[in-house]
């Protein structure tokens, strides 16, 4: 223990030096700085409020390049669309995995695409929402918010709704890209909106879920929690279901905003619940997938994984499909919670699976998109967005760390003293 304490100042000094070099690389090309930690690209100041010791530990475990896939795929007309940390929107043949086209933005893409009337809509960290022709990959239009767009768009009645780190929900015309209106909050809007019965519901990092009338742009109600709401709300049977970083999942009345039930987990509930009939399923950073009665919130069963669950589950064919940061994609019986199968990838699985024609598609932070047989979990094809740089040694044994700027493409290799 004394040796560790003696070396800690040197370790911290190396880490600070890495930050200085890293920022210099970014400044040289006028790019915003990011860090690659266990497949999660983060700014040096955006580590989910983790203790310094935990941040340093994660730095040593795994360092990755720029091709993680955290954008959940969308399937339309036998084509799979997804974004990547390489800054591109990709279109693949859903049957073969062959790439049809790629559309390049100026920032990484965590937003999940929405497809409507032959157009793919997706947000980018470069501050734009893009409308791209689904067949050709050519840009139709783009809309600038001047801040990162990680929220996934929702299309309803030819209006595209999405959030931005400018603290606003935006409504733009799907055909022209002209803004119809916007609604300002007091925090980043990372949550993806849900539109139903003339109301759009969305969360904000001001800890609030909002319900806005799309015709009048007037607030109908708001529901305040004790944590960020990055979870995207789901509407079903007159209720709105969503998670919060206060560790709760809530179901509120869609008309009044009054709470119907709340369910406490032991970690942040960042993913969106999946509701099917009388069942609601959702994950938590406590590593559990929960199944509850959708009417009452009473727990039916839970399934334990070995790491956080940030993936939003998908219910289909009697199964619940979801990813975990333990690197697996799981298929679990929706009635019993018994595991059907699991598929191992090389990194975190934070995307939500998309299923069409018996084929399940999802992305991983190992830089790959996988297509599996939904019934058996057998691999059909894999699309590799790019390579990765990994070190699986603990931070006490690692001799060099790689710090990357996403846009500058600068890599600084700095020695870290052994403990």
From TrEMBL:
All copies of domain Pyrrolo-quinoline quinone repeat, residue ranges: 68-182, 246-407
Region forming the signal peptide: 1-28
Highest taxon of the lineage: Bacteria
Coiled-coil stretches: none
Entry keywords, A to Z: Oxidoreductase, Signal
Cofactor: pyrroloquinoline quinone
Molecular-function annotations in GO: oxidoreductase activity
Pfam families from the UniProt entry: PQQ_2
SMART domains recorded: PQQ (SM00564)
InterPro entries associated with the record: PQQ_b-propeller_rpt, PQQ_rpt_dom, Quinoprotein_ADH-like_sf, WD40/YVTN_repeat-like_dom_sf
Family per record: Belongs to the bacterial PQQ dehydrogenase family.
PANTHER family: OUTER MEMBRANE PROTEIN ASSEMBLY FACTOR BAMB (PTHR32303:SF10), QUINOPROTEIN ALCOHOL DEHYDROGENASE (CYTOCHROME C) (PTHR32303)
Protein name per Swiss-Prot or TrEMBL: PGF-CTERM sorting domain-containing protein
């Amino acid at each position: 223990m004394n040796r560790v304490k003696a070396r800690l100042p040197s370790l911290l000094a190396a880490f600070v030096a890495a930050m200085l070099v890293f920022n210099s690389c970014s400044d040289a090309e006028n790019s915003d700085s990011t860090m690659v930690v266990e497949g999660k690209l983060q700014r040096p100041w955006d580590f989910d409020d983790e203790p310094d010791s935990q941040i340093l530990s994660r730095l040593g475990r795994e360092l990755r390049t720029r091709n993680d896939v955290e954008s959940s795929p969308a399937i339309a007309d036998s084509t799979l669309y997804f974004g990547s940390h390489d800054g591109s929107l990709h279109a693949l043949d859903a049957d073969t995995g062959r790439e049809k086209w790629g559309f390049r933005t100026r920032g990484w893409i965590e937003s999940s695409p929405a497809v409507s009337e032959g157009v793919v809509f997706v947000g980018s960290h470069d501050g734009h929402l893009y409308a791209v022709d689904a067949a050709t990959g050519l840009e139709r239009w783009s809309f600038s918010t001047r801040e990162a767009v990680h929220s996934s768009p929702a299309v309803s009645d030819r209006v595209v709704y999405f959030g931005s780190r400018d603290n606003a929900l935006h409504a733009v015309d799907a055909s022209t890209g002209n803004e119809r209106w916007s609604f300002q909050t007091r925090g980043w809007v990372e949550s993806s909106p849900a539109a139903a019965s003339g109301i759009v519901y969305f969360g904000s990092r001001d800890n609030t879920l909002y319900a806005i009338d799309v015709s009048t742009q007037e607030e109908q109600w708001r529901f305040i929690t004790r944590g960020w709401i990055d979870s995207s709300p789901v509407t079903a049977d007159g209720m709105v279901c969503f998670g919060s970083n206060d560790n709760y999942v809530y179901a509120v009345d869609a008309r009044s905003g009054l709470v119907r039930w709340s369910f406490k987990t032991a970690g942040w509930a960042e993913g969106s619940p999946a509701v099917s009939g009388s069942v609601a399923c959702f994950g938590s950073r406590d590593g559990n997938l929960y199944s509850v009665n959708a009417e009452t919130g009473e727990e039916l069963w839970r399934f334990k994984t070995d790491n956080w669950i940030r993936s939003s589950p998908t219910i289909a064919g009697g199964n619940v499909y979801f990813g975990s940061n333990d690197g697996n994609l799981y298929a679990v019986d929706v009635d019993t919670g018994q595991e059907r199968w699991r598929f191992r990838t090389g990194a975190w699985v934070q995307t939500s699976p998309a299923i069409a024609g018996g084929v399940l598609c999802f992305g991983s932070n190992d830089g790959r998109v996988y297509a599996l047989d939904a019934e058996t979990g057998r691999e059909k094809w894999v699309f590799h967005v790019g390579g990765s740089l990994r070190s699986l040694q603990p931070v006490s044994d690692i001799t060099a760390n790689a710090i990357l700027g996403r846009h500058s493409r600068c890599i600084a290799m700095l020695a870290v003293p052994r403990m």
